[in-house]
Amino acid sequence: RAMELPSSHLSAARAAAAAVGYLRYLRGGPGRGLQLRELRRARRQDIDDVGHKYYLELELEDVLDKDRTVNCTAEVLYHLGSKTSAPDVQVTVQGELRSTEDADQEFYNRIRSLEKELVAENIPDSHGNVPPELEPIHRLAWVASGYVIWQNSTENTKFHLAQVKHVKQVKRSDEDLQFDFVVLLHEMVSQEVLPWEVTLLWHPQRGARVAQSRAAGAGS
């Protein structure tokens, strides 16, 4: 049976970060930035020979619609002894997220109509500012890093997107937009800052998918 954890419990907060990363990847986009407002409840179950499973109740907000929050339940299963496999995450959003259809289409058309492919760096800048025209790109970086956070989370990590070091749009022959990101992830437990290269494909009807991601080593 599952044991209640205080919502301030560090392992509950780490599981919540993995769940929010997964949800950002699944449901985020240029017109939607999901973040955790409150971890309301957490329980942990130790499943023999399998791993530790967290049951979470979260309250989320969309940075573009701060007045409205959505509740969400998540289950995060960390596999025993595995350093390589991502936790299994299941997320259920209660109620509807604000529609981003128009904003998505507008962003898509704007990027498609650029004379030159978009290139930008240091989002936010050293003062914490994001130029308005780069805000959708920053939210797509949340989506890209959400995937990396979910894939690389363990019970002992808590990742946070610190900055987009560099982003470059790559022209494609199909309908997708492609962005090659270098993101800096701050790992709150070890206090390390880890650069990751992530290639994100996005289309307003099909949403986002990560084509590749890898740790950007000092040697590369």
Keywords:
220 residues; Nuclear Transport Factor 2, Chain: A; 5-stranded antiparallel beta sheet; 3 helices; 22% helix
What would you say this structure looks like, in words?
Helix content is about 20%, strand content about 45%. It is an alpha+beta fold and about 220 residues long. The strands form two sheets. The chain has a five-stranded antiparallel beta sheet, covered by helices on one side. Helix 1 (about 10-25) crosses helix 3.
Describe, in short, the structure shown:
Keywords: Protease inhibitor, Repeat. The chain is an alpha+beta fold and 220 residues long. It contains three helices and ten strands; from the N terminus they run βαββββαβαββββ.
> What is the CATH level 1 assignment?
Alpha Beta
Structural class: alpha+beta
Give a short account of the largest sheet.
Answer: 5 strands, antiparallel
The CATH topology comes to Nuclear Transport Factor 2, Chain: A
Overall geometry comes to globular
**Helical content band:** 10-25%
Q: Give the distance, in angstroms, between the N- and C-terminal Cα atoms.
A: 46 Å
What's the architecture in CATH terms? Roll
Q: Sketch the topology as an H/E string, one letter per element.
A: EHEEEEHEHEEEE
Low-confidence parts: none
Question: Helical stretch count?
Answer: 3
Family: Belongs to the protease inhibitor I47 (latexin) family.
InterPro entries: CYSTATIN_LXN (IPR049897), Cystatin_sf (IPR046350), Latexin (IPR009684)
Keywords: Protease inhibitor, Repeat
Domain Cystatin LXN-type: 1-102, 119-220
